[in-house]
Design goal:
Layout lengths: L5 E5 L3 H18 L3 E5 L3 H4 L11 H12 L5 E5 L11 E5 L8 E5 L12 E5 L2 H13 L4 E5 L4 H9 L5 E5 H6 L8 E2 L14 E6 L3 H8 L4 H16 L8 E6 L1 H8 L12 E9 L6 E9 L4 H17 L12
Parallel strand pairs: 1-2, 1-3, 6-7, 6-8
Antiparallel strand pairs: 3-10, 4-10, 5-8, 5-9, 11-12, 12-13
Helix pairs in contact: 8-10
């Protein structure tokens, strides 16, 4: 009996294709059906305008979601940190697979670490969140660094360093891992230095909500811990009413496990962990004013508990003046 291939909608970038191939293999294994990649081109892929001018990474998400709703593809893979916090009713996040390393990293010239960069070092990033935290860290640690806004794919960004235009660039560990360039990292930034974007390192597998069989099959790839952690992080982001352009960092983790995980020890046993810590930060991009708070509570057992954890921390951050640091609200 022949199975119709499932059609997976993906962006055409090298990173998106790598992520989608990994998911395609996993979906084939759980469904027993072949999966074919369908490349969706978006305005964001061909435009040279700064992403913030054309609607942020939302332009990529919208194109994939339109293809899903039109029935051109059966499911789509997104980087979770690109997804808006509001979920359309017709679509469902059927699976959030186990998260990769959520940390940010730098790729610097001469294998330098962040603290070894020379005075006046130019660090490239397109992210206000990274700028805010790097500038704040530099200020509090006597590092004289300049953050430089850049855009482009991973290869383009690393090329700026190779060609000597920049001393370093900041990237997500997960993306470099997925395209096989993790060995070019010169420094892994501790989450105490730079909190990642909400959902960083996690993928989202989305399909139409009415396709019950596919929702169930994809659900086998879901990692329950990743789901509660990123749900809390995204709930914090939503409650801060922060558009993607706002410099918000958030991370939910399990404190006893974080050290072994940062050391790359996969044997860290999740069973002993009773508490989840959620940290959030928002600041001005120049790093002069920051609100950074954390809360620890029982590991959420339901979606609603995870949402509540994020909302509670956001409320405390707003009480400490977070809203005033976010500049123009994204409408």
């Amino acid at each position: 009996m022949t199975h119709q291939p499932l059609r997976l909608g993906t962006r055409r970038s090298r990173l998106a294709m790598a992520q989608s191939r990994q998911v395609a293999d996993a979906v084939s294994q759980v469904t027993g059906r072949p999966v074919e990649l369908v490349e969706i081109t978006t305005y964001g892929d061909v435009s040279r305008e700064a992403l913030t001018q054309i609607g942020g990474t939302g332009v990529f998400v919208t194109a994939l979601r339109d293809a899903l709703l039109r029935g051109e593809v059966d499911f789509a893979v997104h980087s979770l940190k690109d997804l808006p916090t509001s979920q359309p009713e017709e679509l469902t996040l059927a699976a959030l697979p186990e998260r990769e390393d959520p940390r940010d990293v730098i790729v610097a010239r001469d294998a330098l670490k962040l603290t070894d960069l020379p005075r006046g070092a130019r660090i490239g990033t397109g992210s206000p969140r990274r700028m805010a935290q790097l500038n704040a860290y530099g200020r509090s640690h006597g590092l004289d660094i300049e953050t430089v806004p850049i855009r482009g794919n991973v290869d383009t960004r690393i090329e700026y360093v190779r060609e000597g235009e920049l001393d370093a660039v900041v990237l997500a560990a997960a993306g470099l891992q997925r395209i096989g360039r993790i060995d070019e990292v010169t420094d892994f930034l501790s989450v105490d230095t730079v909190l990642p974007a909400p959902g960083q390192g996690a993928l989202a597998i989305e399909c139409t909500a009415d396709n019950a069989d596919l929702v169930a099959a994809l659900g086998e790839l879901d990692d329950p811990f990743t789901r509660v952690a990123v749900t809390a992080e995204r709930s914090l982001l939503a409650a801060l009413e922060a558009g993607c352009s706002a410099p918000v960092g958030a991370l939910a983790d399990l404190p006893p496990l974080s050290n072994p995980l940062e050391r790359g020890d996969p044997q860290a046993d999740r069973q002993i962990v009773k508490e989840m810590r959620l940290r959030g930060v928002v600041g001005t991009t120049d790093g002069t004013r920051m609100v950074q708070l954390s809360t620890t509570g029982p590991v959420p057992e339901t979606h609603d508990q995870a949402l509540a954890l994020g909302r509670e921390l956001a409320t405390e951050m707003l009480a400490q003046g977070a809203a005033g640091l976010m500049g123009e609200r994204a409408q």
